[in-house]
From TrEMBL:
GO terms for molecular function: protein-cysteine S-palmitoyltransferase activity. GO terms for biological process: protein targeting to membrane. The gene is Zdhhc9. It comes from Pycnonotus jocosus. One of its GO terms (cellular component) is endoplasmic reticulum membrane. This is Palmitoyltransferase. Its EC number is 2.3.1.225. It is a multi-pass membrane protein. The DHHC domain is required for palmitoyltransferase activity. Belongs to the DHHC palmitoyltransferase family. ERF2/ZDHHC9 subfamily.
Length: 393
């Protein structure tokens, strides 16, 4: 006889989350699925800084000051830390509605809008919300089945609604939202300073070498360990990378500095939410640059509402052989032992457990003894025994 036993299998919530995200380290790291450009970002930063520390820094530390590589290392470590913090964190994803919640919201919408005749377009699903005496519209997300909070938007790449959505940045491999915007801003700011720093001291390096041995001789100089590659060729390569990176990164930093000062997002700026024809004022701005910067960069960081590492318990049923389940302290009820039972009792194991019934041979008909018959004289017919029911009749 088989018995179904339920075993619990621990499943983390990040394994069942919808959307197009990837998770690593048991849900601690959350990124977008498209990470190719993020790896390119890492390669450019690590490669440029490795060349700078390997060649120019050694010369500049001796000729000018040993503080040059130290300050470059500080900028490099800070830029890498903010990049990884931006890329590996939850940007502020809003959980989707549960089936019961979605059904309740749909029922509310139908009760409000009424039945829409066939062939007519249903009215937009919008709720009005007041912030600082300003009416803000909350739009309904047909994918997440929720009314999005103010400033939230649905990312088509990650397929999630993100709170205070700014933009999806492929260079960091993640969305930029409420929970990682400050780290994104610090990353591009530190990367701008690092790019300017390396670009400047590369020019200084070439200038110092040219003053000593001449510019043409500097171009021909080769180190002993790398006879086929000129130091100046590597320097020129660094200068070109920094030059083309300088305009984009510094320009991006200036643009986001402008947005931070106005307490505005990239999504709102592109859509013209507060600068359109209606000339609606930004209800989130405090009217003060310092207050706006403090709120965006120094305000309290909200916790993640996903609970990625929360536990979901699922039951798995497994079949086991056995007639019944007994605890280790359960004993057999006392009963009169017959010859077959005495044999079964003698087959008990040394640890006190009883082997499965399938291991005990069933008693045959010949082993079962009939009640002894009353002795009778020869020629006397046997008198059949009467049970209790027949005796009453």
């Amino acid at each position: 006889m088989s018995v179904m036993v339920a075993r619990k299998k621990v499943v983390r919530k990040w394994e069942k989350l919808p959307g197009r995200n990837t998770f690593c380290c048991d849900g601690r790291i959350m990124m977008a699925r498209q990470k190719g450009i993020f790896y390119l970002t890492l390669f450019l930063i690590l490669g440029t800084c490795a060349l700078f520390f390997a060649f120019e820094c050694r010369y500049l530390a001796v000729q000018l000051s040993p503080a040059i590589p130290v300050f470059a290392a500080v900028l490099f470590l800070f830029a890498m830390a903010t990049l990884l913090r931006t890329s590996f964190s939850d940007p502020g994803v809003i959980p989707r509605a549960l089936p019961d919640e979605a059904a309740f919201i749909e029922m509310e919408i139908e009760a409000t809008n009424g039945t829409v005749p066939q062939g007519q377009r249903p009215p937009p699903r919008i709720k009005n919300f007041q912030i600082n005496n300003q009416i803000v519209k909350l739009k309904y997300c047909y994918t997440c089945k929720i009314f999005r909070p103010p400033r939230a938007s649905h990312c088509s790449i990650c397929d999630n609604c993100v709170e205070r959505f700014d933009h999806h940045c492929p260079w960091v491999g993640n969305c930029v939202g409420k929970r990682n915007y400050r780290y994104f801003y610090l990353f591009i700011l530190s990367l701008s300073l690092l790019t300017i720093y390396i670009f400047t001291f590369n020019i200084v390096y070439v200038a110092l070498k040219s003053l000593k041995i001449g510019f043409l001789n500097t171009l021909k100089e080769t180190p002993g360990t790398y006879p086929s590659m000129s130091l100046t060729v590597l320097t020129v390569l660094e200068v070109l990378i920094c030059f083309f990176t300088l305009w984009s990164v510094v320009g991006l930093t200036g643009f986001h500095t402008f947005l931070v000062a106005l307490n505005q997002t990239t999504n709102e700026d592109i859509k013209g939410s507060w600068t359109g024809k209606n000339r609606v004022q930004n209800p989130y701005s405090h009217g003060n640059i310092v207050k706006n910067c403090c709120e965006v960069l120094c305000g309290p960081l909200p916790p993640s509402v996903l609970d990625r590492r929360g536990i979901l318990q699922q039951e798995e049923s497994t079949a086991q052989e056995g007639s019944c389940l007994r605890g280790p302290g359960t004993q057999e009820p006392p009963a009169t032992q017959g010859p077959g039972q005495a044999q079964e009792g003698g087959m008990k194991q040394q640890d006190g457990s009883i082997p499965p019934p399938t291991a005990v041979p069933a008693p045959s008909v010949s082993d079962t003894k009939m009640p002894e018959e009353k002795q009778r004289t020869p020629g006397e017919l046997p008198v059949p025994s009467l049970d209790a029911g027949q005796a009453e009749h």
